[in-house]
Amino acid sequence: MQQSSIVIVGLGRIGSEFLEHFLGLSNVGISIIGVVEPLDTLGRRKAESSAIACLALEQVIAFGEDVDFIFDFTDS
What is the DSSP string of 1-70? Predict the structure, then answer.
């Protein structure tokens, strides 16, 4: 099975739940390669403790085609 690389933008309540859901799954072919969250939220702390890179938007853009999906859970 080919891995799909994802980035999660926004780790408020919904983004954090999405992160938790995917961290709880195994062998589904998804790799969370980074998150974007400037604030100190529970989701950001969970990502950091799970060794997921906390990125700036510019860093996500630099990934280019190496990112298959970007999930935006911000309200902007």
Answer: -PPEEEEEE--SHHHHHHHHHHHT--SSSEEEEEEE--S--HHHHHHHHTTPPB--HHHHHHHGGG--EE
Q: Find, among 8, 5, 9, the residue nearest to 68 by Cα.
A: 5
| Distance (Å, whole) CA 48 – CA 44 | 6
Rounded to whole angstroms, the Cα distance separating 70 from 10 reads 11
40: CB partners within 8 A, 6+ apart: none
Running along the chain, 76 residues long, what does each successive block of 10 average in pLDDT? 89 95 84 95 96 95 94 90
Q: What is the pTM of this model?
A: 0.91
